[in-house]
Every structure is written in C-alpha cells, then in structure tokens.
Specification:
The structure is a single chain. The protein is α+β, with helices and mostly antiparallel strands and 330 residues long. It has a single domain, classed as B-lactam Antibiotic, Isopenicillin N Synthase, Chain (Jelly Rolls, Sandwich). The chain contains 9 helices and 14 strands. The protein is globular, with a radius of gyration of 19 Å. The protein binds 2-oxoglutaric acid and fe (ii) ion. The site of fe (ii) ion (FE2) has 4 residues, from loops. GO terms for molecular function: 2-oxoglutarate oxygenase/decarboxylase (ethylene-forming) activity; dioxygenase activity; metal ion binding.
Length: 330
C-alpha cells in the first residue's frame, strides 16, 4: 500500500479529539418495509443519506425485536462474567475476535475508549466462545444475529450498486460469509458505568472520535442509552462542523458508511466522524451497551472503485492497516 493511502485515512482521525459544539441535525430514517416492492424508492433515500451525512437509521428492517433483545441480554450476561473468565478469550491484535478491556486507543484522542468489547469474526473463533454452562445460548443467539445483520447489510449495500455502476452482486460476492476469507465482525460493547467515577474519569471518551474502517456499520442501541454523536465533516479550514446527538431508540438500527466503502466508491459514499460521549450530570450514569456489525469486505476481495482513482488494495491489507493504528499492532 502506498504512503498516500496510509496518510489520507489516518490523518482524518487526528486533531479531532476535542469536545467541539453540538448542532441539531436530522439523521434520516429509512423505512425498509416491502423492500422488493419499494426497492427503487428505498435506494434513492439510502443514496441521498449516504452521499450527504453518511448516517441513516433503518426502521422496519426485518430483524426481529426478540432477537435483538436476546442478543443484548446474552451480551450483558457475557460481560457479567469475572474478568478472569473473560481473559480466557483474549483479543489477539489484528484478528477482530475475542475480548478486550480498554485496549482500543483512538488516534484522535490518544486515550483508550472506556469500554470492554467482545468481537465475533466467524472464521477466527476457535477457543473464543464461552462455554454453554457459563453463558447459556450465547453462541446460537450470536450466530443467528450475526447472519441476520449480514443479510440486512447486504440488502443496504445492494441498493448502491446501480448508482455506482457496478455489478448487482459486487458487495454480496465481496462479503461471502461462507468463505474462510470472511472478515466481517459483530462487536458486543459494554461502556463502563460511571456511578463511582471521579471527575477526572469524565475527561475520557466512551469512544473517541473516529471513522469506521469497514464498508457499512449497523449499530444497535438500547432505548435511552444515548451518547452517540455524528459529525458530517469539516469546513475548508479543517475545523469539524459540529456534533449531532443520535437519539437512542430501541429497535432502530443506526447505519454509517465506513472508509472501506468510501474508497471502493471513489469517494461518492461518505464515511463520517462519530464518537460516544460521556453522560452529562443530568443523564443516567449507568453502563451503556451497544452492538455493532461491521461489514468488512473479505480478505481476498480487491477494492477498486469504478473510476479507479485509488490503486487497488485487498480487504486484508486495508483492515490490517487500520487495526494497526488502533490496537498497536506492528
Ligand atoms: O457504541 C456506539 O454507539 C458506537 C460504537 C462505534 O462507533 C464503533 O465501535 O465503531
Ligand atoms: Fe464507529
């Protein structure tokens, strides 16, 4: 990979760690019901959002609420295990699989996110699943949830193909879940409760400002557990344009375009900054749980935009470059 590639995406993350101002903006809601009948209309709305703010929320998306609830419930049960139990499933740098505690340092802030996470990247899960007796139903719930998120992500991505002028099945082929090269990730996240925190602790971020590495992120939030803020870019002088709170509504899936798709679309689809702030004094200080599915093109997928303005890069090389900058690999 060239130095320009390395610099462009990573530079975007630097110098953006400060609090900034808050601005109210609409994050478009897109109704996915009757998808096959309404495909053209849905595709228009998705394109409009993805080429503008880069964020949108899906409603009537087809993932059953009972499965979302089960996934959050099993996630909390996993994080409730003692640290020495969770340490049996360590995240190995560069793998996006396993458990980490305050290990992700964002280039924008230089400090670790105040969270723990457990990541599921299916071909890399040997010895990383908790036992059935420790967290009953964890694996079957997560396998079902992972696959439904994949299917929804592919549905959304397929809506971009005709406008981009690429093959209808480009993204589905490029994220083939049956391939050993599959590297999309389901990440369970637990932001630590702040009930016993000191004023000093509030100087950190639950998740520092960043853009995602992937093609498309599907983020599940819990009703009332807010903090996610998005920023649609910078002005001509490189100042961020202000942060917008994304209301946490249960069952609604907040989506954003990631850097991999921005590059693959020759910068047509926009990957924008976001972060998770600490609760304010009048907000709940309790823990926050979220679950993100990151659709990341398979390791052997070659990312090359239709106009070819960037040099081709494999999914493998792209993700490794970004993981190295966040988890201190290499
Ligand atoms: O937990 C959230 O609301 C956002 C998480 C996020 O942006 C990420 O993990 O990339
Ligand atoms: Fe993110």
């Amino acid at each position: 990979m060239t130095n320009e590639v390395r610099l462009k995406e990573l530079e975007k993350e630097r110098h953006i760690g400060s609090a900034g101002v808050t601005i109210e903006r609409d994050v478009p809601q897109i109704d996915m019901s009757d998808f096959h009948l309404r495909r053209a209309e849905i595709s228009e709305s998705l394109w409009e959002a993805a080429t503008d703010i880069g964020f949108f929320q899906l409603i009537n998306h087809g993932i059953p609420q009972s499965l979302i609830d089960d996934a959050f419930d099993r996630s909390a049960a996993f994080f409730d295990l003692d640290a020495q139990e969770k340490e049996k499933f360590p995240l190995k740098p560069g793998t996006n699989a396993g458990w980490e505690y305050k290990a992700q340092v964002r280039p924008s802030t230089g400090t670790a996110d105040q969270k723990e996470s457990y990541q599921i990247t299916l071909p890399r899960m040997a010895n990383l699943w908790p036992r059935e007796s420790d967290v009953p139903d964890f694996k079957p719930t997560m396998l079902a949830f992972e696959r439904m998120n994949w299917a929804l992500a592919m549905r959304v991505l397929s809506c971009f193909t005709s406008k981009l002028g690429v093959a209808d099945d480009l993204f589905v082929e490029g994220h083939d879940p049956l391939s050993p090269q599959y590297q999309s990730t389901l990440r369970l996240i637990h932001y630590l409760g702040m009930e016993d925190a000191t004023p000093e602790d509030f100087k950190y971020w639950r998740a520092g400002a960043h853009t995602d590495f992937d093609c498309l992120t599907l983020l599940h939030q819990k009703q009332g557990q807010g903090g996610l803020q998005v920023c649609p870019g910078k002005d001509a002088d490189g100042r961020v344009l202000g942060w917008t709170d994304v209301p946490p509504v249960g069952g609604v899936i907040t989506c954003n375009i990631g850097d991999m798709l921005m590059r693959w679309s020759d910068d047509k689809l926009l990957s924008n900054l976001h972060r998770v702030r600490m609760p304010k004094p009048d907000e709940s200080l309790g823990p926050r749980y979220s679950i993100a599915y990151f659709a990341q093109a398979n390791m052997d997928t070659v990312l090359q935009g239709p106009k070819g303005i960037y040099e081709p890069i494999t999914g493998h090389d792209y993700i490794q470059m970004r993981l190295g900058a966040n988890f201190g690999k290499k």
